[in-house]
C-alpha cells in the first residue's frame, strides 16, 4: 500500500507529484489527468513550476482566469488531402495525442467548448493555421488536433498571434509510416500570455520534424511531450527563442521512449537581451528524456545553447537523461550558455568588418542551423526579418 503524502489531493496519492518537499524521483512517475481538480494549485516550489513567474500567469494556474473568451483559428481550405472538422468534447479521437501533465493544460482541457481536428491524407500542399488570441482583457482555452493518415507526407505551419491570455492543448497524431514537418511560431503581441501543452504521438516508422520559434508575448511557456506507439518512430525537435527585456520564454520538453528502436534529436537555441532598469530577459529550457526498460536500441540526443547578448539577461538550462536499459544505440545530452565569442569578433574585425556588423553576423550564424531547417522560403525569410528587427532593438 502506498503511503499518503500530506498536502496532495487524494487523486495524487502515490503519484509522487513534486511539491518542493516531495520531488518526483523519475520523469516516468509524473502525474497526468484530464481533470483539473486532480492537480494541486502550484505554489512555485514544484519542479514543474519553479522557473515560471506564477503571478504573471493571470490566474491560469489557480483557476481565477475566466477562460470565457474566444480563440480564433484561421483554417485552411478543405480538399486536396485536407479535412477540417469542428467537434464537441465527446469526440473519441480527442486525447489520442496524450494526457495533460500540469494544471494549466488540464484547465484548458476542462474549459474548451469545441475542438478543431485537421486530418492530412496523401501529399497535400503546405497547410497554414493562424491561432489568434481573445483580446488584451480576455482569457480563453483552445484545443487543436492534427492527424496524419498512414504514409502521408505533409507540412503544417501554426502561427500564434494577437493579444490576451491563452491556455491550450495541441495534439499531433502521426499515422504509421507518415512524415510530418511542423513549424509553430509564437508571434504574440507584447502583452500576451500563452501556456500551451503539445502532445506528439508518433506511430510505427513515422517521422516528426517539429520546429518551435518563440519571438513574441510577455510570457510564453510551451511543454512538448513526445511518445511513440511503435518501433521505428523518429522525432526531431528544433527550437529558437529570442527574449527581450522583461520577457519570459519557457520551453519544457519530455521525450518518452517506451518502445524499441526509436530515435529522438532535440536542439534548442535561445538568445537574450536585457535593458538596465527593466526586469531581466529570461529563458528557460528543460529537456527530459526517458528511456524505459523496454526501449532497447534507442538513439537519442538533446542539446540546448543560449547566447546572452547584453547584461540583465538570465538563461536557465536543465537537460535530464534517464536510462533504464543498457541495450541502447546511443544517448547524450548537453547545454551551453555564453556571451559573444570574442575570437569570432576579432577574426571578423581583423578583416575590415565593423564591430556592429560582425556582432550581427555572429548572431545570425548562431540561429542559422535552426532557420535553415525551415524548408518554406517565405516563412524562413519572414522569421529572419523578425530576428533582424530584434537585433536592431538591442543595437547588437
Summarize the SSE layout with pairings.
Layout: E1 72-74, E2 82-87, H1 103-111, E3 115-120, E4 127-132, E5 139-148, E6 153-161, E7 165-174, E8 179-186, E9 193-202, E10 207-214, E11 219-228, E12 234-243, E13 248-257, E14 263-272, E15 281-291, E16 299-308, E17 313-323, E18 330-338, H2 342-349, H3 355-371, H4 377-394
Parallel strand pairs: 3-5, 4-6, 5-7, 6-8, 7-9, 8-10, 9-11, 10-12, 11-13, 12-14, 13-15, 14-16, 15-17, 16-18
Antiparallel strand pairs: 1-4, 2-3
Region (Disordered): 1-20
Organism: Pseudonocardia hispaniensis
Protein name: Fe-S cluster assembly protein SufD
Unreliable parts: 1-22
Average residue pLDDT: 91
Total helix count?
4
The termini sit apart by 59 Å
Strand composition percent? 35-45%
User: Fraction of residues in helices?
Assistant: 10-25%
Describe the structure.
Mean pLDDT is about 90; it is low at about 1-20. The chain contains four helices and 18 strands. The N and C termini lie far apart (about 60 Å). The protein folds into two domains: about 65-340; about 340-395, no CATH class. With about 400 residues, the protein is mostly beta strands. The protein is about 15% helix and about 40% strand. The strands form two sheets. A nine-stranded mixed beta sheet has the order 1-4-6-8-10-12-14-16-18, covered by helices on one side. A nine-stranded mixed beta sheet has the order 2-3-5-7-9-11-13-15-17, with helices on one face.
